[in-house]
Amino acid sequence: MEAALNQALLTGFGSKPILSSTFSRSCILPHKHYTWVSFRAWSPLPCLKSSSKTVRLRCVNVEERAQPAGLDLEGSKKDKLRRKKLVVFVSGGGSNFRAIHEGCVQGSIHGDIVALVTNKSGCGGAEYARGSKIPVILFPRTKDEPEGLSPADLVAALRELEVDFVLLAGYLKLIPIELIQAYPRSILNIHPSLLPAFGGKGYYGMKVHKAVIASGARYSGPTVHFVDEHYDTGRILAQRVVPVSATDNAEELAARVLHEEHQLYVEVANALCEERIIWREDGVPLIQSRENPKKSS
């Protein structure tokens, strides 16, 4: 920048300039972004020997100039963010996995799924991944899945893929401590009840909805939470309330909760990819509003 200013002075005064002070101030007009640069320069030319001159130049920031009228500045900020690399874990049909994949393809999630991890090579989620040309990784290694990876090999594989975030979507195995340590505050899970109610080991799938109805609870709904070394005990990030009708059966409640799961997980995954997750001083995660960054939920 100084070289450019020196050149400008040489062009104007034909001598070696001396910069006595500099400062800059930016302003945004409807169509352009300007930076005003002011400085004082001295020149030995006869006509200017006994005086100094203040020069004020208007520089246009190359990266931000000529913004079209009506451009969403938040959209511009989003375009500058690197698209995040996601890996999804499933054990069954993978309807949340499909919703996330569609969100990535359609642009509602600022990221891409680079692999699917499953403990069942023949599950519906794995079949969908293969049909969508998404690599499938088997984990863990078991008698039924001898080609599955060890925890260390799984972490190495995700590192090789440069994965940013891990999303569990109906994965029924406990996540190994090696993965949790490798991806701190970067692993999410979705659970079909309002945690901490109806969570923990043994609470999954239809068992959750049957327990909710049997309890007489008036509300249920999905919870997205960060993952720790236990079942369903990580910090809660987002929830969506679903009323429970007095005449509901487990299947009816499950269908309504699943509908909300698909929407909620896509919204949260996008907030994660847009780097809008902040942490309160007491360790509670919050989601920043895109429209108003000062507002969180």
UniProtKB/TrEMBL annotation:
Compartments where located: Plastid, Chloroplast
Top EC class for this record: transferase
Entry keyword set: Chloroplast, Plastid, Purine biosynthesis, Transferase, Transit peptide
InterPro entries: Formyl_transf_N, Formyl_transf_N_sf, GART, GART_AS
Sequence ranges assigned to domain Formyl transferase N-terminal in this UniProt record: 84-268
Catalytic activity: N(1)-(5-phospho-beta-D-ribosyl)glycinamide + (6R)-10-formyltetrahydrofolate = N(2)-formyl-N(1)-(5-phospho-beta-D-ribosyl)glycinamide + (6S)-5,6,7,8-tetrahydrofolate + H(+)
Tagged with keyword Chloroplast: yes
Pathway it works in: Purine metabolism; IMP biosynthesis via de novo pathway; N(2)-formyl-N(1)-(5-phospho-D-ribosyl)glycinamide from N(1)-(5-phospho-D-ribosyl)glycinamide (10-formyl THF route): step 1/1
Any one of the GO CC terms: chloroplast
A molecular function GO annotation: phosphoribosylglycinamide formyltransferase activity
Record-given protein name: Phosphoribosylglycinamide formyltransferase, chloroplastic
Gene name, Swiss-Prot/TrEMBL: PUR3_2
